[in-house]
Design brief:
Strand content: 35-45%
Structural class: alpha+beta
CATH class: Alpha Beta
Radius of gyration: 14 Å
CATH topology: Aminopeptidase
Strand order of the largest sheet: 1-2-3-4-6-5
Largest sheet: 6 strands, mixed
């Protein structure tokens, strides 16, 4: 999924994967908004669009990971109904932890 500006330029992206063990679950592999477009509600709109699309496609959950110090992203996900399920220690290498977050649809 992508977010575009009025010129059709891509300003954000959300990459999804279907769950390996549960095909009714989805995983947000990547979620990114270009820096100059942040804090304008674009990320929220893109995330809501993705969630609505997953619901319409009969998915029952969506999960993602986020760096514990990425406060803006974690706040967005929490405000959109995601819950922190666990802390994945050393997920991206020694000392690089991630929150595992999930939203039931």
């Amino acid at each position: 999924m992508v977010a575009e500006d009025t010129s059709g330029d891509i300003i954000g992206v959300c990459e999804l994967l279907r769950g390996w063990k549960d095909p009714a679950s989805a995983f947000i592999h990547s979620f990114y908004i270009i820096k100059k477009y942040r804090h304008q509600g674009i990320g929220r709109k893109l995330l809501q669009f993705v969630i609505d699309m997953l619901k319409a496609s009969a998915f029952n959950s969506v999960s993602l990971t986020v760096a514990p110090d990425n406060n803006a992203a974690a706040k967005l996900y929490l405000n959109e109904g995601f819950e922190i399920k666990s802390i994945l220690k050393n997920e991206y290498g020694p000392g690089i932890d991630r929150y595992l977050m999930e939203k039931m649809l």
